Amino acid sequence: MPTLIAGNAVIGQSGGPTAVINQSLVGVVEKLRELGACRPGAPISQILGMRHGVRGLTKGEFIDLGALTRETLEALSITPSAALGSTRDKPDAAYCQRILEACRNHNVRYFFYIGGNDSSDTCRIVNELARKAGYELRCFHIPKTVDNDLLVNDHTPGFPSAARFVAKACMADFLDNISLPGIKINIIMGRHAGFLTAASALARRADREQGSTDGPQLIYLPEVPFDIERFVHDVASVYDRKGRCHIAVSEGIQDKDHVAIGAKLIKGAQTDAHGNVQLSGSGALGDQLADLLKEKLTPAGGKPPRVRADTFGYVQRCFPDASPVDQREARRAGHFAAEVACRGDLDGSIAIIRTSTPGPWENYSVEYRRIELADVAAKTRHLPAEFTSGHNNVSQVFLDYCRPLVGDLPRFERLGGV
Predict the structure, then answer these.
(1) Phi–psi pair at 331, nearest 5 degrees
(2) DSSP string spanning 160-194?
(3) If you ran DSSP here, which 8-state letter would residue 316 be given?
(4) How many CB atoms lie within 10 A of CB 81?
(5) Phi, psi of 256, rounded to the nearest 5 degrees
(6) In the predicted model, what is the mean pLDDT of residues 69-97?
(7) Three-state DSSP class for 341?
(8) pTM of the predicted model, to two decimals?
(9) How many other β-carbons are positioned within 10 Å of the β-carbon of residue 15?
(10) How many CB atoms lie within 10 A of CB 385?
(11) How far is CA 16 from the centre of its chain?
């Protein structure tokens, strides 16, 4: 039987929204109710939702999640973006002390936070403060990030759906590129980790001869040093051969000295509170790379090549075409968090661990584990070296890893000779 303590449960969402973050929210609510929460006389009397994460908790701004109907929860589960509202707040010890006081004031004994590595660090700090204060509080982090950059996890809820969007967008964009040939650059999310940009390789047809030059022909990741002159040479090589070139670039590309290319190329760039150059949504990096190619590839006395750039931006996060695997796993991560909290565990992060071996004949499977908050808190996972190939491509190992996550992709056809 579950070991329950009397009090309320609170759930929050933090960081960038995703297409499946509400699946995790619903997963926690339905499992807590299944275990008896919100029934008359039950130890867990209320399930509260923080409005805009811990900011709302400290202000006492809640939604009564326990009162929602099954129909509402199911509709909510397939709704993209953070239903409770999110926050970019990164609480320090003093902020976390206010969080703990809010938990005391509202008799919160179960604290669930859905988010990335900063959210797990918030859980860690709050949990440590609660223990020092002798206040029993069960703190659990539920993974979420399209960047796929949490340690220990094989992948994180949100990434498969965003990767699915990137793959499908690049499939369609490549067809556009061969219809009206030119040089096309797509800037894809990922300041420090290149998983999403790597997913653009899934746009290439897998049912054709080996060595297909389907786009994107060039893929640039933050984990592989970016050299501007080499980039120009790469593009020129493809363009001279085919009369077109399709390129995927991570917003976080950096040189061998770990200086962001965006910071080098973008003049007068906006920076955030942490001093980081604004990359997502600005369009500036793509424009600067496009201008560079026009300058470098224009023959003397000739016309510049046709170069265009798009920044996928926030649409990657919440496009309403979620991966079926992602929906299922995000929900189950919420279930598992509720289960371990109710069985008596005091804290932890939920990790998705792959139990099958990636490859063409993989019978894909995963399991869920409770891991220590310190294993993921404020840490960043990078694309493994075996997922890259050379300086401008990804490996078959990455494709085998990623394909089961995104779900079936359309099989487009082309007429011969294009």
Answers:
(1) -65, -45
(2) HHHHHHHHHHHHHHHHHHHHS-SEEEEEES-SS--
(3) H
(4) 17
(5) -65, -20
(6) 94
(7) helix
(8) 0.93
(9) 25
(10) 10
(11) 8
> In whole angstroms, how large is the CA radius of gyration of the chain?
23
Q: Which residues pair with 350 in a beta bridge?
A: 370
DSSP classification of residue 356 = S
Neighbours of 306 (CB within 10 A): 12
Query: What would the two tokens of residue 319 be?
Result: 């496009």
Query: Please, are residues 221 and 273 in contact by the beta-carbon 8 Å criterion?
Result: no
Distance, in Å, from the CA atom of 261 to the CA atom of 253, rounded to the nearest integer, reads 6
List, in sequence order, every beta strand (DSSP E) within 80-224.
Answer: 108-115, 138-143, 183-188, 218-220
Amino acid 389 reads S
CB 409 within 8 A of CB 202: yes
Instruction: List beta partners, residue 47.
Output: 9
DSSP 44-79: EEEEEEETTTHHHHHHT-EEEGGG--HHHHHHHHT-
Rounded distance between C-alpha atoms, residue 395 and residue 215, angstroms: 15
- Residue positions annotated with a catalytic role: 147
Strand 108-115 with 307-311, pairing: unpaired
> Domains in the chain, start-ordered, CATH in brackets?
7-158+322-375 (3.40.50.450), 159-320+383-406 (3.40.50.460)
Residue-wise pLDDT for 5-46, tens only, equals 899 999 999 999 999 999 999 999 999 999 999 999 999 999
What tens digit of pLDDT does each residue of 177-188 get? 999 999 999 999
Whole-angstrom distance, CA of residue 46 vs CA of residue 346: 19
> Are the beta carbons of 104 and 135 closer than 8 angstroms?
yes
Residues in the chain: 418
pLDDT tens by residue, 148-160: 999 999 999 999 9
Using the 8-state DSSP alphabet, how is residue 290 labeled?
Answer: H
The beta-strand segments (E) located in 333-379 are 347-354, 366-371
Strand partners, 280: none
Asked if 338 and 35 count as a contact pair (C-beta separation under 8 A), the reply is yes
Helix (H, G, I), strand (E, B) or coil at 138: strand
SS3 state of residue 135: coil
CB 7 within 8 A of CB 43: yes
DSSP reduced 3-state for 254? strand
The number of helix segments (H) and strand segments (E) in the chain equals 13, 13
> In Å, how far from its chain's centre is CA 161?
9
Residues 381-388, mean pLDDT to the nearest whole number: 96
The pLDDT tens digits for 281-325 are: 557 899 999 999 999 999 888 899 999 999 998 999 999 999 999
